Amino acid sequence: MDHPYLYRKQYQIGKTGSTDVIEKYFHLITQNKNEEIAIADIGSGPGNFTHDVLITLFKNPIRKIVGIDISESMVKFANSTYGNEKLSFEVFNVENEVPKQYISFFDYVFSFFTYHWIKNQRQLFLNINQMMKPNGQMLFSFVAQSILFDIYQLVWRRPEYAPYISDVYAGQPCFQKSKEPMKELQTIIENAGFKLGMIKMEKVDIRNLSLNDFKEFIISVNPYYDKMPYHLKEKFILDHLEHVPRDAEVEGPNNYYLKFNMFVVYAKKK
What we know:
This is Methyltransferase type 11 domain-containing protein. InterPro entries: Methyltransf_11 (IPR013216), SAM-dependent_MTases_sf (IPR029063). GO terms for molecular function: S-adenosylmethionine-dependent methyltransferase activity. Helices cover 33% and strands 26% of the residues. It is of the alpha/beta class. The chain has a domain at 4-146 and 173-205 and 259-269: Rossmann fold, CATH 3.40.50.150. It has a seven-stranded mixed β-sheet. Helix 6 links the parallel strand 4 and strand 5. The two termini are 35 Å apart.
């Protein structure tokens, strides 16, 4: 997960959970053009979406926009590429205690393709509530359920990889096996002090991906690729790819596809 160039390159897959969500649902966000605002982008990665998309959406004068990520290499890349007086990127795990300077600081909090990595969903939303001003708004999407995480389980339990895997459930969404994922998430969000404006479960189907597309995607998001010794890295990725579904009706090499269920949520702090 520390490959900012590859991560940024995987636009076709990542845009489903970010740009497409903005295009469909940003109209839910209300703005007061006369007030300076502060914005957080949780899971900002290499920073391109924060800089190229989020910062352009607001009519208000922006006092501060902060990209938050747990990866030091991602944050370093983002700051060197996009950082300026108003836009900065910081290493911060939102499951942990909120830094004092960010308590009741943000008017808007966004996150795309990130929250499925966080196991303690209750603490996550309590912390986000603490970061936001009263009546602050949040819009986010994240993977609810995906075959990719079942593939992780199949590969990571193999004897040759087991010594390098500290947690076989790393990154698996809390709702992967849930029978009522929307109901569970709704309860967590409301109990954390938010009023839900919208909660949806969207079915995403991304097709016509090449072997190399998927290979680069898995390298960019897999938490254990970098922990593998050099002689196992290639085989580790190829073992994932052998389980990725392919479309029998599409001729040629570009017939890989990925399906997943994705939460999309808009809510306001009470």
